[in-house]
## 1
Amino acid sequence: MEELSLWRWYGSLIYEHLADVLTMCRIWIVCYLASCFFFLGLDPWIDPRFFWLLVVAALTGLFDGIVARRTRKTPSEFGKNFDKVADKICEAFIFSVMITMICWAGQYWLLLFFIPSIRTESFLVGVSFYNHRNGNDDCANQWGKRKMALYFAIGILWLMPTGYWHFLQSATGISSGGYYYIFFALSLFTAAILGLVGFFEYLKKAYQDRK
């Protein structure tokens, strides 16, 4: 009976923290991919593991919130903060890899579209620290979740191997041609707008909490 109750205790503990496990998996994945890219020098446009593992990371970001709502009766302060940290790590990975590969490709004009996103993320980090210091709840709003989903979509499409692109073009008969980089530029600009709207939502909530 004691052994059974011990297993039940471990099972309930894992069940309760399953969302945090998914969040940790997201961090592990991007750290592994970062080491493959920056230290081993693997090319994402040749090696398909970048594409598929980032898809898995995006899925963990999608399901950790769903799992948390189903396995916990009350929101976890650690879980909310841990999820935000994981998202920022993923954003840093996507930005750094894309910027490096853009420089490789010589498309330096595309770097201008990272400036609004980086500034918006800096604003959001500042607001998050301010709210945390003042004891305010600043869990991600819907605009922030949409922005993060778009960042993942941008990263997944950017890291899609060249062979996959050729297959899609031959299967659909559509050639991206010169619109490839324009698509990513518009996507980055859209993500920056979503982040800016989320930033104003944070400011609105902080103002209402002070009243």
## 2
Amino acid sequence: MTYKPHILLGKISRVNGYDGSVIIRLEKVFIENLPEMESVFVETDGKPVPFFISWADYNGSDTLKVRFEGYESGDKAGEFTGCRVFLTSGDGKVPKADRSLDIEGFRVFIPGSEFIGTISAIIENPGQDLISILSPDGREILVPLHDDFITGIDRKKKIIRLSLPEGLLDLN
């Protein structure tokens, strides 16, 4: 299982009954287009924690009822109310609307229209994927792949604009 921080399934809104099942309010892209899942990551205290799904019920609306293995009581499952739920890499196909990371070959710019390089690869790491950028002088620049850093994507021109924390580029 690999954590995919860019594939947010939804957020746990409440406990459902006394059997430990929870209600996940789904992101719009997954409504009526839910992938097959055996496991998910639940973000608790800012960290992804893997959970296997023992039971799930989806009726085509914007919510999914799920029970996690080892959490067969409402008290235990109640700890996760408000937590975000992410898909794992083994969850099958991601809906087309969420295939937004086909960005290899895109030119990267930072504020001030400064060109820093071209994306050569997306490196999948547990906990944090990285963008590998090949600079004009041939050195590799690694930048965390995070929604907060991406300020714009122009697919037609194959350009991505990033706003990076000060000093991040100096680490490479």
## 3
Amino acid sequence: MNRIINFLRASVHALFLFITLVPWTVVALLTSVFASGTTMYWVCQRWLKLSIDAAEVILGITKRVHGFENLPLAEKAPAIILVKHQSLWETFAMPAILPHPLAYVFKRELNYIPFFGWVIASMDMIYIDRKQGAQSFQKMVDQGTRLLANGTWVILFPEGTRILRGQTGKYKTGGTRLAIATGAPVIPVAVSSAKCWPKKAFIKTPGVIDISIGKPIPSVGREPGELMAEVEAWIEAEMRRLDPDAYK
């Protein structure tokens, strides 16, 4: 019975996302003609927040944030946010939670997804072409430096893709290399989203998702590998505290 109810809830939520995304996309694209990158971010952030709020009402998935006081307070304080990635939920939730505009590092191919990709393409994000190798990383540094100077935080998922609950992916050093190149501190974030919103699963489970924000880690004078090892150690230890059942 619970599975049927959760299936119906997921269907209603998916329908809600679709019927709100289309008109919101039209508004966002029209706004992009005359609006700045920051204005565009907050226009699109409203839809992401609406999606997360709808998940609370329709799916019964609530959130609990730990460590919010660890975020830099200054208006233009730079930060590289490195987040554990288990589901689509945190992609939507981080802009809804964090007080600064965020710039995701995206594969350029995502721009071609109807509606969602079109809006992403209109925002001031960091788009990379992995085929370009070192040239692509230099573009990421150039864009990241500009965005950080304007008070936008750069956010990455260091594992690169969604990871199954209770598992650890390979932490790549792109985020720490960017932090060292720009001098921005790294803020690790652990998210237990797979408890309620599993990878590639249509049916979601009501419950509480914990988001734990770590203290900023200075990047100046560090090596990318050892800095990422520190980030990984904190995130994975925190994941075992937030979701101990997944790591038995």
